[in-house]
């Protein structure tokens, strides 16, 4: 409903919630029942009760090792834009689950998120991965320089997130060469070479794609076949591989994608 997005209406809802519910949720945060404390955290986030940030921050610090309270306390504090929380949560030595970094970063407003994008050099690998993952989900073309920088990162997972960002945006800059990525010793990176080649809309069928459909990894062969199936000359190439390749795995994958092109499933 449109009225829910109206700033004046939302400000009124927050004011009413702050007046009527703050004390109730403050008491619940100190309840012995975990369910009561969780319930309070959910509603504090939903109603954006900034007044209770100190209490939530204390609960967060006291329950860092508790899988039931810690994640939601983190989400709530992220929604409240707690500076003290972010300094602690994004510490260089923090070791949160990957999913939680993403959920926290997803709750940051655009200004704060832009700040984190500029700090891609964060020493914590999982933080860098999460920033890239959320940037890819946003689908913002302004993030292309960020992905280009990340594609040269020494960490494999960071590079993979960069490649996925390009794939999501549907663009492969000149600085990213799928053929170079295709010779990686890591199969996920070779897989992304095939997926990026599909996005790049190369005119000719490049040699490395013919090699990737012979790869030892099923996933690499799968995406190489998929990339060929979307190419203007892909059917002809897949037919050639199916009948002329000396690699049985390549022949099988080519046949499966030819069937898919006729309406079957891989």
Explain what the structure shows:
The chain has 266 residues and is mainly α. The chain is 67% helix and 0% strand. It has 16 helices and no strands. It has helices at 7-29, 34-47, 53-62, 70-79, 83-89, 98-106, 110-118, 125-138, 144-150, 156-169, 178-181, 187-200, 207-212, 218-229, 234-244, 248-261.
Proportion of helical residues: 55-70%
Rg, Cα atoms, Å: 24 Å
| Number of helices, where a helix is a run of at least 4 consecutive DSSP H or I residues | 16
Order of helices and strands: HHHHHHHHHHHHHHHH
Mean pLDDT: 87
Low-confidence stretches: none
Spatial shape:
elongated
Specify the structural class: mainly alpha
Q: Count the strands?
A: 0
Spatial gap, N to C terminus: 41 Å
Sheet with the most strands, sense and barrel status: none
**How big a fraction of the residues is strand?**
under 5%
What descriptive keywords fit this protein?
67% helix, mainly alpha, 16 helices, single chain, 0% strand, 266 residues
Present the secondary structure layout.
Blueprint: H1 7-29, H2 34-47, H3 53-62, H4 70-79, H5 83-89, H6 98-106, H7 110-118, H8 125-138, H9 144-150, H10 156-169, H11 178-181, H12 187-200, H13 207-212, H14 218-229, H15 234-244, H16 248-261
Helix pairs in contact: 1-2, 2-4, 3-4, 4-6, 6-8, 8-10, 9-10, 10-12, 12-14, 14-15, 14-16, 15-16
